[in-house]
Amino acid sequence: MSHRIRALHTDTTITVYQAYSPELGVPAARTGRFPAAWKRDRMTWIKPSFLWMMYRCGYATKEGQQTVLAVEITREGFDWALRHACLSHYVRGLHADQAAWQRELRRSPARVQWDPERDLHLNALPYRSLQLGLSGEASRCFADEWTVSITDVTDRAREIHGLVRDGDEEAATRLLPEERPYPADDALLSHLRA
């Protein structure tokens, strides 16, 4: 299936990734909570795919994205966000019309994008990976209610990057989180598949 969520998950949690400047990321990992400086009124994007996060932050080399966080959140919260999400773009046949989609987008506290999954070299793969944008109520709940733990995985990202540069893909692959299909049924995703 080309639109499927793959993630590190347990019976009660799912791990998503974000990258921040060290000023935000380091205190968040140290305390296991997002600091007051983390803007709860802004849209924040979470990514269940570690390699998509590596693509986005350039293996923790991009300005303002040098600290990579693994944020373990409740599956209950993640599923709530999916149920209340809207696709980030209009799709003929899925939405009644452009105006209906825009109304849904304004109303939704979450939005979904499906982007090509990435390999170790950050090349696009032929299937899609979920990105979930959270705003308003969803963003506040993510920061203050759904978060179970925050771990700084920057060193691991850099180690994987080094192994890839050295041509040791086997060792790099062994360090990747074990991302398996997330148990999301059609009721949870049917309104989010293009």
Describe the 3D structure.
It is a single chain. This protein has 194 residues and is an alpha+beta fold. 36% of the residues lie in helices and 27% in strands. It is built from 8 helices and 9 strands. The protein has helices at residues 22-31, 50-57, 75-83, 98-107, 136-146, 154-165, 169-174, 186-189, and strands spanning 6-7, 13-20, 44-46, 67-74, 85-87, 110-118, 124-134, 147-152, 180-181. Strands 3-7-6-5 form a 4-stranded mixed beta sheet. β5, α4 (98-107) and β6 (110-118) form a beta-alpha-beta unit. α3 (75-83) runs antiparallel to α5. The radius of gyration is 17 Å and the shape is globular. The mean pLDDT is 93.
SSE topology:
Blueprint: E1 6-7, E2 13-20, H1 22-31, E3 44-46, H2 50-57, E4 67-74, H3 75-83, E5 85-87, H4 98-107, E6 110-118, E7 124-134, H5 136-146, E8 147-152, H6 154-165, H7 169-174, E9 180-181, H8 186-189
Parallel strand pairs: 5-6
Antiparallel strand pairs: 1-9, 2-4, 3-7, 4-8, 6-7
Give a quick summary of the entry.
The chain has 194 residues and is α+β, with helices and mostly antiparallel strands. The chain is built from 8 helices and 9 strands. The longest helix is centred in the last third of the chain and has 12 residues, at 154-165.
